[in-house]
Please model this.
Amino acid sequence: MLRPHDSIIVQTLGRFLIPVVQIFGLYVLFFGQYGPGGGFVGGVILGTGMILSVLIFGHDASRSQLANKVLHVDGVGMLIYAGVGGLCMIGGGEFLNYANLEIPGLETASRRSLGIVLTQIGVAVDVAVTVVSIVFSLSAEEIVEDSANG
Amino acid sequence: MIVSYEIPLLLLVLVTAGGAILVKDLMSAVLLLGSYSFFLSLVWAWLGAVDVAFVEAVIGAGLATVLFLLTLFGTNPKDTRLRRPPPSLATLIIFPILGFLLLYAASDLPVYLDPNSPASVHISPTYLEQSYQDTHTPNVVTSVLMDYRSLDTMVETLVIFASGIACALLLRRHT
Model:
């Protein structure tokens, strides 16, 4: 079990830094089409923000609730990605051919752009959840010990 | 002008990589590995691969260091001092030969920025020319990864998902 960090400097900096990290992660995720970045890096940065809150405030703090809850959506990112592919098949095309997404009023290129955004969200959710899950797994041994002791 | 900082950068990469192997303390090795990834990301950025540099900086210098440190904290503190046996004779013979073979093979690689190299004449020009018309995505790396090669990326995502599941299965044992 990771306990809250003692130093008030670390806690104050964490309180300030975590929202900045999360917003930067969202920026990287959604501007991956216009600059460097994308779903993978954006997801890792989002997950890193949650890991930071777990490392600084501990497993049980209210600030770490997002990291605790996000563990339950393992696999949803994969579902989003494959679901977009399935929607393309429903639209009458090949798997993951975004030009067949059934959205009225959009030309082909804009549909493909939208498909890229949706799949990037899927990758980001998957990567963020996996990263937080691995960190929880690595510190899980002590959780078992703690529950055995108390 | 490029040469002025290219040589020190590559030297830093070599020194931090060698230091991470040679240093006795595991904690120092982890931190040296993090700085190695950071310098490597600078090399990628210098070569123009900004997306790769971004991933290297975030994963190598940020996340992998945190994961290594968590693993170190999870193990017994006395395990952090490493006792390394001296290299055997076979190691001393085989690895220089392997290195020589790699360098020999590297002389056959196309020259950097060569427009006639096989990688830049096959399908890359099509992607570079068609990407914006096809997908309205200025970043060609993103459009190749997410649109033209989308199935590959989906299976990569599946690999990441499987790695998370495997970590949970192996490490979160409730005995």
User: Anything to note?
Assistant: Chain B touches chain A through 46 residues (CB under 8 Å). Chain B is about 75% helix and 0% strand. Residues 1-84 of chain B form one domain.
